[in-house]
Amino acid sequence: MTFISTTRSADVVLIGGGIMSATLGAFLKKLEPSWSIVLFERLDEVGLESSGPWNNAGTGHAAYCELNYTPQAKDGSVNPAKALSINEGYQLSRQFWSHLVNDGSIGDPSSFIHTVPHMSFVIGDAHSDFLRTRYEALSKHTLFSSMQYSEDPATIAEWAPLVMNGRGEGRVAATRVPEGTDVDFGRLSRELVTFLENSGVEVNYGTDVINLERSRGGWSVATKHLASGERGGIHAKFVFVGAGGGALHLLQASGIPESKGYGGFPVSGQFLRSTDEGVALQHNAKVYGQASVGAPPMSVPHLDTRYVNGQRSLLFGPYAGFSTNFLKNGSLWDLPLSIRPSNIIPMLAVAKDNMDLTAYLVKEVAKSRESKIGALREYFPEATSEGWELITAGQRVQIIKKDSAKGGVLQFGTEVITARDGSIGALLGASPGASTAVPIMLELMQRCFPKSFKGWEPKMREMMPGYGVKLDEHPELAAEVAASTAAALQLAAPAK
């Protein structure tokens, strides 16, 4: 384990030890094994911030159950385009992980991925009508062909007993995709970084990157070892800022024109967690509901089966909150220190146009434990307050960007920012994030390494048979890929 970098120059510097940097590093080591790579992580282990299993929903986002990816139009219709795009992206991620398992680059897949059916569950006529419309829009597509729909309480009780036991009368509806997954992205990050270390990548723990400056042929990266205070530096031809909420400050420090106008709006949250195996064994699903009015999309309530360090547990939430730090282990000064002349107008515009979000966050912060247990009982009617621990989730920094019409908009998603010369790239934003790390990093590589990218494509097709193809439009290939990735990752065979 390296603590103080002695390397003076590198082809690539990766900032942050989460799933994004780990994925990019793994790609580059496979495609260009001779390139020198150095990774800096400010904590003492990788995958502890946004990639940590208790800091995110860990769903294996495939848009099977997340209703915010298919909003209902005013005419009642549902557009499946975004859900299809996210699902295609997740299939690419699975293919890359399968390749790494098959060639021995990473270890036992059961350490980071498990089959857990994905469900959407709604209450009342309006929500049930919407869910049926969503089901009809999605189930006709290859990637969603295994989706099931029911309004029968007995059937839904078979799928998720805890959701239905003790529930009163009234219309309910649910969809279910049996081959959904639960992913521990913290563990996967560690698997990937172990592969990088074994491949000659220098990994520096407990080391903060404090500044980025242009230098001849690349970037000067200034570092500080947090325990000793020792400062250092390294020259990099290419820098990737994969520092989660910390990416905005470093992107601003770089001074690249492409960073101008971006701001960040931090949203914190909490979950209720139960590690009582007697309860957890009664529920095998990720059950997502509808977000409250005014709630951000990442605050959609869900009752999840989780696997962390081999232990099965339940997670319910999130309960949104607000804190000015951009990282769970960050500073309360993160938000005020991110304000620049170039982003103050977009940030003020977003504040003015999102008063309902502000009111929602204030209300959430003020919720008592009893109120939070009450929200749990909407999805688990017989839940008792005992045995549920309130844990703090990771920070999510939503993107604020310029908008010609409104001055600024708040964007719930992820965005890749790259310099025109391709010498630096960064990722801002949140969901679906980790689950689509592979296509996100492919986009970044295409933009930052355009001369090399075409030559890499044959190798990428070897690693990911569905690369460059829309699986939804090729049913036979989709079935073949689903079966091969399920086998490699030791998951349940896909439903036919």
Automatic annotation (TrEMBL):
Pathway: Carbohydrate metabolism; tricarboxylic acid cycle; oxaloacetate from (S)-malate (quinone route): step 1/1
InterPro entries listed in its UniProt record: FAD/NAD-bd_sf, MQO
Keyword Flavoprotein recorded: yes
Listed Pfam families: Mqo
Keyword Iron tagged: no
Gene3D superfamilies: D-Amino Acid Oxidase, subunit A, domain 2, FAD/NAD(P)-binding domain
EC numbers: 1.1.5.4
Main EC class the enzyme belongs to: oxidoreductase
Alphabetical keyword list: FAD, Flavoprotein, Oxidoreductase, Tricarboxylic acid cycle
Reactions mediated catalytically: (S)-malate + a quinone = a quinol + oxaloacetate
Cofactor: FAD
Family the entry assigns: Belongs to the MQO family.
Protein name: Probable malate:quinone oxidoreductase
Species per Swiss-Prot/TrEMBL record: Sinomonas flava
Gene this chain is encoded by: mqo
